[in-house]
Amino acid sequence: MTGDPAAAKTITLRSTLANIPRFIYNLYLHPLPKFPGPACLAFSDIPLSFLQLEGTSQYRLRTAHEKYGSVVRIAPRTLSFISPSTWKDIYGFRNGRAALPKDPKFYNDMLLPDITPTRANDDEAVPIRRAMNSAFSPKSLLGQESMIVGHIHRLLGQLRKETYHDYLNKISNNKAVDFRKWIIFSMFDINSDFGFGEDMGCVAEGRFHEWVRFVVEFFYAATLIYQCYKFVPLNELLTLFIPRMAKQTDRPDFMHHFVASAEKEGLSLPVIEAQASILILAGSETTAVALTGAVYYVLSHPAIHERLNKDIRETFKTAEDIELKTALKKLPYLDAVVQETLRTHAPLPNGFTRLVTDKGGAMTVISINNYCCNTATENYTDPFVFAPERWFGDKKYASDNRNAVQPFLVGPRNCPGKMFALSNMKLLLTHLIWNFDMELDKSTKDWHVGEKVYNSWIQPDFPVYLSGRVK
Ligand code: HEM
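Above: inputs. Below: predicted complex with protoporphyrin IX containing FE.
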């Protein structure tokens, strides 16, 4: 097909000219101009969409918040907030239900089916969430520990193989390992084992399962979703690849708990099956991004790395002593490292949009952007400094708004997998640090600078040198 650049230019110019009255209206006559914000974003929806397609909107919005304050108009009908007090107003409960409805343009019918908790309306989501809660209860999570540890051991074994030419004689092959890749493998294995009682074999085979690759790319596709009519609904794909439901395992996995409660809630089989997609989609990539971020921040701060090494290696005399109960409770410094990672590197940095309807019926889209909120100078002292101490009552950070960090959201539509994600992160970090001395490859300098976001951070390769611990 041949293009005609002159015709394209003419069409662009004509449509821009035709829209000038609308741009003027948006800037000066619209009901929202009382909210501050850059005119270059407020005149049309196009600039924000462009930045989102480019994966860089978080940086532009942060600059706008630093200049204009805690509420910024970022498109004609769109406001961004960063005050900690607004979390509850936007996402919390009101009269036992979600305070505000989800924005159907983001939660559209190409993203996920409306029988997933993410897209179900507030009333329909209640029984699904109730059925999920029993699967995510602290008791059933503790029941998953041996499964998680089994996967961690498999991962450690593969990392040793990658690191050592001859493991018994400790002959290293002096090759850095792409850590991010292995963490993704492990998180997809753990989440699918948790969800369906069967892992995907990513760590064992050292490669992405085909549909896992698809799920990772779905995060990018979600940004382009309006143009993505070619995508088959994800849950149908998943049920094609995972012959689940009837499979029986001795260990009560998520589906075991979920199906038992779902029956009591009167949920239909299609609703039960649809949870397959959301569980893998929501849990694997997010936790992998957070874990990779945590390893990066720890290794790039030698004092933090040393303190964590000391805490973990002194607390657990043998690797078998590492247990969820102890890893979660006895290691406050590890806890602070994880919190600080979720502040500086929240896996889903851009906000989740909700709608406010005014008396005339006009809708405004509002959200809190995690990246802007967590790196705002109005919320944190030295917001770009990775400082676990800020979670320990260090005087320097006394004025920090620590409750501004809400990577799992708040309220009735928050993340039900929060405890599962935190447990995985802490267990894996503890095992890694107990077992290995680690060092960043030089190429990782400024590894996170300019990272793009398509729903989640697009992290570059992450080469790390490993060796069996010396002390
Ligand atoms: C660090 C890791 C994680 C982060 C930061 C995170 C964050 C979030 C956030 C912000 C939401 C709300 C999204 C929205 O409103 O559209 C969400 C929803 C959800 N998450 Fe997580 N998540 C993580 C890990 C997990 C894990 C491990 C699981 C399950 C094993 C999980 C299961 C879910 C489910 C099922 C939903 C949908 C809930 C609903 O819409 O009602 N998440 N997550």
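Residues 68 and 302 are 36 Å apart (CA to CA).
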